[in-house]
């Protein structure tokens, strides 16, 4: 193996740059040439590439976003797009590819693996919804970004004796919402994994008031419903007036935490090692602090479960 490519794809996440840096420097350290592919699979189809050197990935470990930029490619999902990508990879003379992203990225990586390209995936998404790894790169930073905002909202909620509804990201999963709710001491959390129960929520709010609580925080994952819709439902059903904040894409930006920069560096190094050892069609994971590998389909065939401990703890601590 002489020359490898690296790309970031799907939603960006803090720590992507730290992973690009680690892949590039570890590969160069081991005598490989590294090519950066811009804008994920879309850039691959267009042959939009740039040589990466130890110096060109300097000064990026602390930066949010991705210097390679990212995209969601509809073209690449089709078999014709994948055949075209193979032609580009041959023209670029790449012996292997490291792909940094979430489930969609891994499905694309698997398609290339099945067509004979050696690939390794690095899990990087603020959603943390990839089985086979305790944490994805970016999740810890997003939790802390959202937590910082929720703590500020708590200040004003408590000053004014108000009910706040805060919408966090998570179209299909509630890892971010659950963790933020637990860490912020919210009264209630709504997750895509759990049926929405308006009656239970109203009872909980009534109970909180009777217990002498003067303000309350509800965290809702965007996949359940919009915070405005929830506020309207609470008003219509129980007369509650709620203030609403939608945190949105702010959760995807910012410098990676120490945890994420470290995880990205370790996973980047492990991905290069795996590729050099002849592995392909795999993802890197971190389980109990150890770097591990799994076949890529683990990422979408097995649903990562939310921790029952976190959920029951929330119930206990929000009385
Ligand atoms: O990065 C993951 C995620 O943030 C989801 O939680 C969210 O639903 C989605 O991406 C939104 O992404 P975009 O705005 O890029 O479509």
From TrEMBL:
Allosterically activated by ADP and other diphosphonucleosides, and allosterically inhibited by phosphoenolpyruvate. It is found in: Cytoplasm. ADP binds at residues 21-25, 154, 185-187, 213-215. Keywords: Allosteric enzyme, ATP-binding, Cytoplasm, Glycolysis, Kinase, Magnesium, Metal-binding, Nucleotide-binding, Transferase. It comes from the Bacteria. The active site is at residue 127. Residues 3-275 form the Phosphofructokinase domain. Substrate binds at residues 125-127, 162, 169-171, 222, 243, 249-252. ATP binds at residues 11, 72-73, 102-105. Its EC number is 2.7.1.11. It catalyses: beta-D-fructose 6-phosphate + ATP = beta-D-fructose 1,6-bisphosphate + ADP + H(+). Its cofactor is Mg(2+). Mg(2+) binds at residue 103. Pathway: Carbohydrate degradation; glycolysis; D-glyceraldehyde 3-phosphate and glycerone phosphate from D-glucose: step 3/4. Catalyzes the phosphorylation of D-fructose 6-phosphate to fructose 1,6-bisphosphate by ATP, the first committing step of glycolysis. Belongs to the phosphofructokinase type A (PFKA) family. ATP-dependent PFK group I subfamily. Prokaryotic clade 'B1' sub-subfamily. Homotetramer. This is ATP-dependent 6-phosphofructokinase. The lineage of its organism: Bacteria, Thermotogati, Synergistota, Synergistia, Synergistales. The gene is pfkA.
């Amino acid at each position: 193996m002489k020359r490898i490519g690296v790309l970031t794809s799907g939603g960006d996440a803090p720590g992507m740059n730290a992973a690009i840096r680690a892949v590039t420097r570890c590969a160069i350290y081991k005598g490989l040439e590294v090519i950066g592919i811009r804008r994920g699979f879309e850039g691959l189809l267009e042959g939009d590439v740039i040589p990466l050197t130890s110096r060109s990935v300097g000064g990026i470990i602390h930066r949010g976003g991705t210097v390679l930029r990212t995209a969601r490619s509809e073209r690449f999902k089709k078999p014709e797009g994948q055949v075209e990508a193979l032609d580009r990879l041959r023209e670029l003379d790449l012996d292997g590819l490291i792909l940094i992203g979430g489930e969609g990225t891994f499905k694309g990586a698997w398609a290339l693996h099945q067509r004979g390209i050696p690939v390794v995936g690095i899990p990087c998404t603020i959603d943390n919804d990839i089985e086979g790894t305790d944490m994805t790169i970016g999740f810890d930073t997003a939790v802390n970004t959202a937590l910082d905002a929720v703590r500020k909202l708590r200040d004003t909620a408590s000053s004014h004796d108000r009910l706040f509804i805060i919408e966090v990201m998570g179209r299909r999963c509630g890892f971010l919402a659950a963790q933020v709710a637990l860490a912020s001491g919210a009264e209630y959390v709504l997750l895509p994994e759990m049926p929405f129960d308006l009656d239970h929520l109203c009872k909980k709010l009534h109970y909180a008031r009777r217990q002498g609580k003067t303000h309350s925080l509800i965290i809702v994952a965007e996949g359940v419903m919009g915070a405005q819709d929830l506020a309207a439902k609470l008003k219509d059903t129980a007369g509650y007036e709620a203030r609403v904040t939608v945190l949105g894409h702010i959760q995807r930006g910012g410098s990676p935490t120490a945890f994420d920069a470290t995880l990205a560096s370790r996973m980047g190094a492990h991905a290069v090692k795996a590729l050099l050892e002849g592995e392909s069609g795999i993802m890197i994971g971190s389980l109990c602090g150890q770097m591990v590998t799994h076949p890529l389909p683990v990422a979408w065939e097995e649903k990562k479960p939310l921790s029952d401990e976190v959920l029951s703890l929330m119930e206990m601590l929000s009385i």
